Description:
The chain is an all-alpha fold and 117 residues long. The protein has one domain. The chain has helices at residues 19-75, 86-111. The chain starts with 18 loop residues before the first helix and ends in a 6-residue tail after the last helix.
Amino acid sequence: MSLLNLSQISIENSAAVSPMDIDNARIQNQILEDRLGNAKVGRFIEDTILRRYLTYIFSFIIFLWLAAVVSILYFNHNLLNLNLSENVLITLLTTSSVNVIGMMLIILKNLFPQVPN
Length: 117
């Protein structure tokens, strides 16, 4: 295997660059930057709309979940006579509290992300 002598490589520019070529390159660069900026703005708007919908959906799910837990607690001995034990009720309250706190943390972290340094 032979090694190439790098000093023998020619770096001559055979085509001359005209001022019109430089102007065209600047215009094309500006167009690309504008398109990139528009794409970023569009993505930001779509993310904001999606976050808003997810917030409403999660809030509705949390409301339904808490309404179900309160209903079970209220109707345990009153209307339905479920007669659930204290351990089941404690587990129900604990898991529902953890679920509500977890969902709210997910929503808040998504709505207010931390910007990396």
